[in-house]
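TASK: fixed-backbone design
INPUT:
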């Protein structure tokens, strides 16, 4: 028996399958790019100290590099959930500082971790050495999904805590999210499911 394919439905399903397969392939490419980026970050940790970048965005070559900054004055404190160097949960305290010279108009320093969420650290400024990362991304999942762009400022995670705080957990390149393989598998499964559902519907139509 000759199978008759509905033209419009076939074109729509075929186009959808092609798009989903293409997205899966793109995610596999992104996986390789992210792995290379993580390797770069790991290499950066062993490199010599650099100047603190004045403004964002933070280049890949600067991420996870050692730097020393001088906080002239703490303007305000930010508090958010985090962990200390021993892995214990607590409240991370980020100092927003004024700075001068080559360090630019201002700096962010993750100065340490405490248990109290309402603490005002006694530290008012000084020299701090640590690793360069970016400030926490406060966008919602919806904003990220919709592609809401934001330039994250550089932030220094102090190697040693300031007075009254515990040492913060140090960033690890291997902790950088790399979910692209899972995303690729999902797109391939979606493509396969769409094709199977279409073939089953076509078979049922032909049988009817």
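OUTPUT:
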């Amino acid at each position: 028996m000759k199978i008759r394919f509905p033209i419009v439905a076939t074109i729509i399903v075929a186009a959808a399958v092609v798009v989903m397969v293409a997205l899966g392939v793109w995610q596999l490419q992104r996986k390789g790019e992210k792995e290379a980026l993580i390797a770069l970050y790991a290499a950066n940790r062993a490199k010599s100290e650099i100047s603190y970048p004045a403004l964002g965005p933070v280049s890949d070559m600067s991420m996870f590099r050692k730097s020393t900054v001088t906080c002239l004055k703490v303007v305000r404190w930010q508090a958010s959930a985090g962990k200390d160097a021993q892995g214990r949960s607590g409240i991370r305290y980020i100092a927003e500082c004024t700075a001068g010279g080559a360090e630019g108009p201002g700096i962010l320093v993750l100065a340490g971790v405490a248990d109290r969420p309402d603490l005002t650290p006694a530290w008012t400024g000084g020299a701090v050495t640590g690793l360069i990362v970016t400030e926490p991304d406060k966008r919602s999942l919806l904003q990220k999904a919709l592609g809401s762009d934001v330039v994250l400022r550089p932030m220094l995670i102090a190697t040693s805590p300031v007075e009254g705080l515990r040492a913060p957990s140090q960033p690890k390149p291997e902790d950088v999210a790399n979910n692209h393989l899972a995303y690729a598998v999902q797109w391939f499964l979606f493509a396969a499911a769409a094709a199977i559902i279409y073939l089953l519907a076509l078979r049922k139509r032909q049988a009817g």
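COMMENT: The first helix runs from residue 7 to 44.
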